[in-house]
Write a structure and sequence with these properties.
The structure holds 2 protein chains of 2 kinds. By secondary structure, chain A is α/β, with parallel strands linked by helices. In chain A, 34% of the residues lie in helices and 28% in strands. Chain A contains 10 helices and 12 strands. By secondary structure, chain B is mainly alpha-helical. Classes of the chains: A alpha/beta, B mainly alpha. Chains A and B meet through helix 2 and helix 3 of A and helix 9 and helix 10 of B. The structure holds adenosine-5'-triphosphate and magnesium ion. The site of adenosine-5'-triphosphate (ATP) has 11 residues of chain A, from helix 1.
Chain lengths: 250, 315
């Protein structure tokens, strides 16, 4: 369980997050949505201790973020940050193997190699294994970074806009994989999405952020309403209901 | 396999290095002339070892520096570390002239550490969107410290004295006067044991931390290795520029940034470059010698221009 209590964050006096309280119980896919600049990435970075907490506290299972060691947290929680930029000239296979670092500490064993091989296959990266990251396409790179986070094999996986640059097949494939990890593997997935339809289709729960606050939180059917689109996103797209699922007409 | 070819090339150069120089020395004379054996043991062999050790050390520290600086176009010798080493040894010679060499060495290592850390702190504030600012700032930074060295030397009447550190040379290498380089060589080879961790830094500080890497510790370890090794090479041979710049770049083009794989190759190629340049310096104007730093300046500049034009610019 991820517990967030009274977390506020500001940059140069500008409030970015305002007093966030949120519980993310074990298991399930939670989609974090909200307009650009709402504070989604900031919240994810705070959970993953990439930014320093200014006030409030965050716990992941029995670990207290900011107090526990980076290594202990790395075995429990993985994050795929929003920026897909990696300047290093590494091969796809090497990158995915680095995802295992918290476990092997630089000496990958047979078990790590097995997981890397399985991950590469799962993300359809076998053919790209020996290619350099700066010599593949943007979507392929994004897939490799997602694979790296996946290979870390943690109970909690935070993904910040992982669908960027992915074609529809890759996007659906990744979302199905995450869905399976949550349902079958009991993993906890928190994923920032901009495509509300993807959120509605794959998430158990949607958390809406707006101007540094949690604006709404609940099951997709109850969250995706005309009010959300006009009130939070300031747009007037129409919502249809197909089966039981709300679909935003873009 | 990856190291077999450079290893072979280095072995051949090393053999050649033993028998090239102002004083004639041939394999046959070793058996007939006791003077020849002495020349080999006291001068040629140490000189060859010195070139190999320095080349390997410079290439490895250059590669680590580029990762710490997150920029491919910096290397310690010209980016302030080399000049800081010269400053340290100058201060040591001025303040504690009678101190044993390891104390002077310690002072040089300390100033080098401060100089290298200063550069890293400075370039950290530069916008990552302007990768070419980093080498520019490093060049200016190194130049300023270098000017400081010249000024202090001028004031204290030691200008001639510092010339030996500003231009790296191998002709003065004799048995008993280069052994510090073994420490430098071993220290740089030891970085291989943290090669994986340093490689993680290439992913950026955030990604490295999220994988549980102790980023400050590894950065400090890398910095310490760079400073120690640069100080020892500069103090023993003088500044040899470009090796740490050109070799890691060429190796990364082919092998990538996974240091566990590429460090041994970098080390061998650095050794080949320095030893090859030194041999060339012994023959181009024989019986006079061209300093190895000058030779590498010429070869390195050509290689660097080639690199700039060949490599698509990355941040
Ligand atoms: N380095 C920074 N300096 C100043 N303000 C910043 C900085 N980083 C982020 N912000 C501000 O913090 C707010 C939240 O940013 P954040 O990246 O968390 O938004 P987000 O919800 O992830 O947006 P997006 O959907 O565009 O990724 C924004 O208003 C942004 O302008
Ligand atoms: Mg964001």
């Amino acid at each position: 369980m991820i517990t967030i209590r009274g977390v506020s964050y500001e940059i140069q006096g500008q409030p970015i997050l305002r007093d966030i309280d949120l519980d993310l119980p074990r298991g399930g896919v939670t989609a974090l949505i909200g307009p650009n600049g709402a504070g989604k990435s900031t919240l994810l970075s705070l959970i993953a201790r990439l930014k320093k907490l200014q006030s409030g506290r965050i716990g992941v299972d029995d670990l207290e973020v900011g107090k526990c060691s980076d290594r202990d947290l790395a075995k429990v929680l993985a994050i795929m940050p929003q920026s897909g930029h990696v300047s290093a000239r590494l091969r796809v296979g090497e990158l995915v193997e680095m995802g295992r670092y918290p476990w092997h500490q630089g000496r990958p064993g047979a078990h790590d190699r097995e997981i890397v091989a399985e991950t590469l296959t799962r993300f359809s990266l076998d053919a790209l294994r020996d290619r350099f990251l700066d010599e593949i396409s943007g979507g392929q790179r994004q897939r490799a970074l997602a694979a790296m986070a996946y290979a870390q094999g943690t109970d909690y996986l935070l993904l910040d806009e992982p669908l960027n640059n992915l074609d529809i097949a890759a996007a659906r494939h990744l979302m199905r994989l995450l869905r399976d990890m949550a349902t079958g593997g009991g993993k906890t997935i928190v994923i920032v999405l901009h495509d509300i339809n993807f959120a509605a289709a794959f998430a158990d729960r949607i958390v809406v952020m707006h101007e540094g606050r949690i604006a709404a939180d609940g099951a997709p059917e109850t969250i995706i309403t005309q009010d959300l689109l006009t009130g939070v996103f300031g747009t007037d797209a129409e919502i249809l209901t197909l089966g039981a699922r709300p679909v935003v007409m873009v | 396999m990856r190291v077999a070819l450079p290893l072979l090339a280095l072995a051949m150069l090393a053999l050649l290095s033993l028998f090239v120089g102002a004083a004639a020395l041939t394999p046959q004379s070793l058996f007939t002339d006791p003077e020849a054996a002495r020349l080999l043991l006291v001068s040629r062999l140490p000189r060859t070892f010195a070139a190999i050790l320095a080349g390997a050390a410079l290439a490895i520290t250059g590669q680590i520096m580029q990762i710490l600086a997150r920029n491919r176009f910096v290397e310690p010798v010209t980016a302030g570390s080399g000049q800081s080493a010269a400053l340290g040894i100058l201060l040591a010679a001025y303040l504690v002239p009678a101190a044993p060499v390891w104390i002077k060495m310690g002072i040089a290592a300390a100033t080098t550490l401060v100089g290298s850390a200063g550069l890293l702190l400075m370039i950290r504030r530069l916008p990552p969107t302007q990768p070419l600012l980093v080498p520019l700032v490093a060049l200016v930074y190194g130049g300023v410290i270098g000017a400081g060295v010249t000024f202090v030397a001028y004031q204290s009447d030691m200008l001639q004295f510092i010339q030996t550190w500003m231009t790296g040379e191998l002709s003065g290498v004799l048995k008993g006067r280069y052994e510090l380089l073994w420490v430098a060589g071993i220290a740089s080879v030891a970085t291989w044991f943290i090669a994986d961790r340093i490689t993680l830094l290439t992913l950026g500080e955030e990604r490295a931390r999220s994988l549980g890497l102790n980023v400050p510790l590894i950065t400090a370890a890398g910095l310490a290795a760079i400073s120690l090794v640069t100080a020892m090479t500069v103090v023993t041979l003088g500044a040899i520029p470009f090796v740490g710049l050109v070799v890691p770049n060429l190796v990364a083009r082919i092998m990538g940034d996974n240091l566990r794989r590429s460090l041994p190759v970098s080390a061998l190629c650095g050794a080949i470059l320095v030893l090859g340049a030194d041999i060339a310096g012994r023959v181009v104007r024989a019986p006079f010698e061209v300093p190895v730093a000058t030779m590498i300046g010429v070869i390195g500049a050509a290689l660097f221009i080639f690199l700039l034009y060949r490599e698509p610019r990355r941040g």
